[in-house]
Prior knowledge:
The structure holds two protein chains of two kinds.
Chain A (H helix, E strand, L loop, with lengths): L1 H27 L14 H10 L6 H13 L14 H36 L4 H15 L2 H15 L12 H30 L2 H8 L4 H31 L1 H6 L6 H9 L3 H29 L11
Helix pairs in contact in A: 1-12, 4-5, 4-7, 4-9, 4-12, 5-7, 6-7, 7-9, 9-12, 11-12
Chain B lengths: L1 H34 L2 H6 L3 E6 L14 H10 L4 E3 L5 E3 L2 E6 L5 E6 L12 H12 L17 H5 L10 E5 L2 E5 L7 H4 L10 H7 L16 E7 L3 E6 L13 E6 L3 H9 L5 E4 L1 H7 L5 E14 L4 H4 L1 H9 L3 H9 L4 E2 L17 H5 L7 H15 L4 E8 L2 H17 L3 E8 L1 H9 L5 E6 L7 H4 L16 H11 L6 H17 L3 E13 L3 E2 L2 E2 L6 E2 L4 E2 L1
Parallel strand pairs in B: 1-10, 14-15, 14-16
Antiparallel strand pairs in B: 2-3, 4-5, 5-7, 6-7, 8-9, 9-10, 11-17, 12-16, 12-17, 13-17, 18-21, 19-20
Family (chain A): Belongs to the binding-protein-dependent transport system permease family.
Protein name (chain A): Oligopeptide transport system permease protein
Main location (chain A): membrane
Amino acid sequence: MARYTLQRFIYMIITLFIIATATFFLMxxxxxxxxxxxxxxxxxxxQIILExxxxxxxxxxxxxxxxxxxxxxxxxxxxxxxxxxxTELIVERIGPSAQLGFQAIVFGTIVGLLLGxxxxxxxxxxxxxxxxxxxxxxISIPSFVFAALxxxxxxxxxxxxxxxxxxxxxxxxxxxxxxSMGVIANIARFTRTxxxxxxxxxxxxxxxxxxxxxAGVIFKHAIRxxxxxxxxxxxxxxxxxxxxxxxxxxxxxxxxxGEQFVRxxxxxxxxxxxxxxxxxxxxxxxxxxxxxxxxxxxDPRIRxxxxxx
Amino acid sequence: MKKKLSLFLxxxxxxxxxxxxCGGKNDNAAGDKKEGDKPAETKKEQVLNLxxxxxxxxxxxxxxxxxxxxxxxxxxFEGLYRLDKNNEPTPGMAESYEVSEDGKVYTFKLRxxxxxxxxxxxxxxxxxxxxxxxxxxxxxxxxxxMYDIKNAEEVNTGKLPVDQLGVKALDDKTLxxxxxxxxPYFLSLTTFPTFYPQNEKFVKAQGEKFGLxxxxxxxxxxxxxxxxxxxxxxxxxxxxNYWDANTVKLETINFNIVKDTATAVNxxxxxxxxxxxxxxxxxxxxxxxPNYLPISEPTLFFLRMNQNNEVLKNVKAxxxxxxxxxxxxxxxxxxxxGSKPANYFVPEGFVKxxxxxxxxxxxxxxxxxxxxxxxxxxxxxxxxLGKDKITLELLNYDTESSKKLGEYLKEQLETxxxxxxxxxxxxxxxxxxxxxxxxxxxxxxxxxGPDYQDPMTFIDMFVTNGAHxxxxxxNPEYDKxxxxxxxxxxxxxxARWDAMVKAEKILLDEAVIAPVYxxxxxxxxxxxxxxxxEHQFGGDWSYxxxxxE
Lengths: 309, 549
């Protein structure tokens, strides 16, 4: 296992390096400069400023310089936020995004599982159809539509929850619900399908024949097996949530990282583009890694060759 | 299955209607309760709750370039002068000034004012900040705004050391500024953030941290930045050390960062914000509300026409294009946010001349919509060019409102000018700028806002080979008018003014650009908020005179 982990870790570094390289050169293909007052500057004034930031060097030189700093953990300073270190900028904003993503995943998984199991047990009943319709809606309606509806009805009309801002737990409820709709729908769908398959398999029949109660069959035997594919989708879903919170964050005025990702590209804020891309990539790679490890924990059948020793 | 689904949808609809109905009732009840006696008291508390669309990019007055930073700075810092309620410069850190006979040497007498840490504000603070702004090592993007000071350009381009800059502290309380040319708008320039003072000791002590946090910045304005939660909120508190603290009534201003207009409106409705900016779709809802507040800005949008293009080199073709679209429709239907149709280049309500008249009052409408005339000119142009079918590309911003505007322009131009096809090319802001700079466009929708309070900030754009001309247009008479206004006519302000009036006439007579609209912004603001002053350049708002009634 240790060897496998190390190997995977080396691959992770290589992947990150490739991403950094590709992003850097693609980014340099963007026309325009990172200057925030560009439309007012004459070409000479622009040159003076670009010179100071080393942006007049040939791109390969800039690339090498960037990598040198990166290895030392220095992501540089932002252009749009004068002199603010990129690392600081990411750290300040990741908290709310991560909290929302985490809450949405946990809430969505629990509700989705319950809904899926319920639908599978009550196969072809009204309850099953209800759950199915809910899943279809959850998948097809984007989270920001839910967000806007929740804000208007719950926030403005009923005034049960705050409309927006980020000042405590009650402020996280609506964005969490809005974000978790997709998660609920996905998980419920997968759980239902998997559960139906598992419930029809031979070993469940055996368990039932042994006289184990309905609850025992479901919780001891069926769920565990039904969980495997769900763990698979959980990884990418978590990353999707992290990067895809942008619009929901904007609607609820959450001070998250989502917008920076897009904004930095629009503004040619080179250091922030690199910083956020690398950060999100590292996150994605890490999540995939964790999911791989989790497989082994849940299903001994796919434990790795190295692990047997 | 299908039946059940539709049944479900009907149910869902019913439930949501019910919810909405309930909501309405509840809203009233809650409203009554909240609007009763209690909020009236709390509102007298002199706390203003505002929204900002973005995190503050910078609190270093020398480096800042954007509206959000400038707005905060205008309220927590103060230059030699500041803009008053009528947008005229009024003494700030300076108590008075004297100007030499030739108008080139200003001597400012500073008042006894303090920084928020108790240090006195001295003439050295100005010298330090201005040198820092022009030092090429600082790479300040607004350095050029100081180029009217003697040697400023040379210092900024590294040809002279910073100590050669024409600004001197004669003693702690006397600042002497030497100008390159005796510009008549220097006092109003000193209200601009790049001209604010900075405390050398403090800036050096904070090093790289300066201006990044509330407590690594020093204040000398009516308010201090008391709290700054990045990307989330910031707060201004009254500055007890401010020299004119007696005038300041507001105790606290809370800003929350909200990027979504619908959210801002919802916050306004639930009384979490006292003011919200509206986009076109919300203006219809609030247009007749007594709290609706449209505001006109001195920012002008126009079509730039690249004269390297054979068709656009033809003055009749340009004129036809400039006259062929309905500006009223653009301002009132497409934009619908307080924007005005523009038949001019220097914005309305931006600057008054030596005779006290607004520039627009003097020069009126110059290039009005006239479809009949446009059709005639277009036919003549086509004949001169020997072409029957003409295709032009319109370079546009990629924002939602610009897209609509672009489509509308295309429809209008194609309908009114026979044989014309317009292809729209949308680009993100920076990429669009890049294409314009390289003159790789045919027609482009562009905007321009003032850098200083003088028509020249618009007029001098179109001198031959000017950095922002970008049309290839060149007119010796125009160039001479601009040059005279910048040099020989500085001794005769009325003649200078007349030269600029004449220059604008030439510009639009030749239809170098086709004015489209003067930008406005629409707000809703609670009736108990009074006295927020709107500015035409520098920071957008002053809260110094604002209060809660």
